[in-house]
Design a protein that fits this description.
9 helices; four-stranded mixed β-sheet; about 10% strand; about 280 residues; alpha/beta; three-stranded mixed β-sheet
Length: about 280
Amino acid sequence: ISACLVGSEMCIRDRDNTTYEEKDPVPTIRSFLFDECKNRWYDKSLSVIVDKVGTAGINFEHSWGDGVAVLRFFNEVYKDTTNNPFVHPTTSSNVNGVEKTVKLLEFDFDSRAENDISTAIQSHQEIVNSIDMNFLKYEKINKAECKKFKVSPDAFMQLSFQLGYHKQNQKFVASYESCSTSAFRHGRTETMRPCTNETKEFCESIARQDRPSDKKMRELLDQCSAKHNQLTKEAAMGQGFDRHLFALKTAAERIRIIDTFDLFKDPAYTRINQNIISTVIFR
């Protein structure tokens, strides 16, 4: 592994055997997400990982910021470096007498540190081995197609998650979708709850043997989309309830009066905070 520090960030040159394959990107995704942890700095605010053939990925520590901002930043970097590259494969590493700035980092450890590292690697690998990952690429339904039929792409995707889970498990569960509150100074996120009465009715209707007509199903789909857009706008403008209740709960815990609030003992509050389906916003 070779690495270079860039401010507080870390750029990593990955020397494993993983190379990106369009037909099966899962190995590359797993490598960029967690790898074997022997060549990752997970405490850094973000890491840029480059495999041996030049495929780049991002791994970032989530507490300091949100994925939307990081994705926007790297989309801009990708666009600029693609359209206005200032480095070419033929570029010399020593230009006009300026030495290259990428330096190999080598570490010396004592036996205690080595034992701690071995224990951490084993623990990490046990978690990694428990993670399943798969993908389906279906290009006939996309953002443009949804907008052509005047349906919110995000609402359509979230409804598909609800429908898929219902078809597999015949029930509905607490679902989470992050919604940016960047309209506010220091805003981070609010929870948007995509499991609604409207999505419930749609899923139950499509699963019936005497399924309603296509016209009726389209009406139900439109209702899901409208409700989803309403909840998204409310959450984005600080009108959600999750963060408010969490703040109250945290404040009550700090001053040790949490036991006086029946709300936080309610099974419904516990259930809704055990999210079975956790997603990000699709735009």
